[in-house]
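Model: You mentioned two targets. I'll fold them one after the other.
Researcher: Yes, keep them separate.
Model: Target one:
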Amino acid sequence: MAAVVDEVVQGTVPELYYQPSPESVKKLDPLEGGVDKDRSDDRKRVPRKKQSAVNERKKSYQDLMLRKREQNKRAAMRYRQRKKAKAFEMFMEEKTLVNKNKRLQQKVRDIQTEIRALKVLMRVLSINKTS
């Protein structure tokens, strides 16, 4: 009777009893290599979803860096243009101020000449007055 029960149990539920194949025993045997080669290969392989996610992250990072680089180029270009415009503006202001300074210096010379002429005239008039 025990044999019949064993047959029924073994026949109806065979997946509960795991019996390794001789090949898998060799793979797990430390003397035969010690590593389950099928599993070690599985660990090295990255599933497609993860790999595509990694590639997507890498691509998005590269896109981000490219956008940042382009943004930096444009900012540098704007800065250089502002710097040139400021230098040109200062050059034009200097030119204007130099011309204004020349006109004012000429005006000073003209006034000084007029002062000398008036002093001479005052002396002549004062000499004539006293004589």
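Model: Target two:
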Amino acid sequence: ILSTEDLSLTSKMDLSSIKSELGEPTKIVGARKLPGLVKNGWIQYDSSEQCKLTFSLSHNHPNQIVDLRFSVSEQD
């Protein structure tokens, strides 16, 4: 999922381009307001049972990607 042929991580990324490359995300969470704090929204893709790719979205510009995380969990 992270190959440069599938998803260009060097060009400008926005929600529309991510969805056009990867399809609809597994999870979508919108921005949330907490006392004295605004949390960014995010979208997540499950590339397997163990691997997740998460894009954080700007709370000011919800179409703008501000962070990318790749997480791997161990199987028991």
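Researcher: Noted. Anything on target two?
Model: The longest strand covers residues 65-72.
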